[in-house]
Amino acid sequence: MNAVVTGASKGIGKAIAEKLAVEGFNVAICSRDAAKLEDAAADIKAKAPQAEVLTFSADMSKKEDVLAFANKIKEIFQTVDILVNNAGLYLPGALHEQEDGLLEYLMAVNVFSAHTITRQLLPSMITQRKGHIFNLCSTASYQAYPNGGAYSITKFALLGFSKNLREELKNHNVKVTALSPGPTLTASWDGWDGPADRMMEPADVARLLWAAYTLSAQAVVEEVIMRPILGDIG
C-alpha cells in the first residue's frame, strides 16, 4: 500500500506520514527543506523500518516542482492508495495591508498544488476504483476572522475544491475527506507563549485521519472539524 503526503518534513504532515508508515504504508513525502525532509524520513524509518520512504525536495508554489514530484511517485509506486494534500503556508494579516502578490503566492501553495498533484495521481485511483484523498483544510475554511487575510481565502477555496472533488468522485468509488484542524502545536504557532496543552497535537490529526480511512468501504467522512477542548485561540 502506498501513500503520498505533501509538506511532510514537520508538524501535521510528518505526523500523518509516520502514522501511515507504522500502519504498513510506503510513503512519499515532499518539502522545500531538503535537510529537514531527510531528517523526517529517518524518523519515519526508525518507527517503521519496513516502510519504503520516498523523499522529494519541492517548492509547492511552483507547478513544475509539483509535476516533478508526481512523476517521481508514478515512477516508483504502481498505485497510490492515499493522497494527503497537506502542504500549506500560514501568513496572517489584513487584506488591505498585505503585500501585493501574497494572495497569488498562497493560492499556489495552499490550493493550486493540491489541484495539480490530485489531477496527476487521480487516474490510477479511478482505474482501480479505490483510493482516499484527504485535503488538510482549517477552521479558517469555515469562519472568517480578523487578520485571516489571504490565508483564509485560500482555505475557503481548498474546502470548495474538496466539496467539488467529492461530488465528482463518488461514482468512481474514490473517497474525499476535508480535514479541518484548529490550533495545533506546529511551526505556524512559533512565538506563541501560551501553554502547550492549550493546543491539539499533530498526532491527534493523524489519528483522526486514520480513523476516517479505516471505515467500511461504503462509508466516507466528507468533512470533519477539530478544535482544542477549550475552542479556538483568539
From TrEMBL:
Keywords: Oxidoreductase. SUPFAM superfamilies: NAD(P)-binding Rossmann-fold domains. Transmembrane segments: none annotated. Belongs to the short-chain dehydrogenases/reductases (SDR) family. It comes from Chitinophaga sancti. It is an enzyme of class 1 (oxidoreductase). InterPro entries: NAD(P)-bd_dom_sf, Sc_DH/Rdtase_CS, SDR_fam. GO terms for molecular function: oxidoreductase activity. Its EC number is 1.-.-.-. The keyword Oxidoreductase applies. It comes from the Bacteria. This is SDR family oxidoreductase. Pfam families: adh_short (PF00106). The keyword Zinc does not apply.
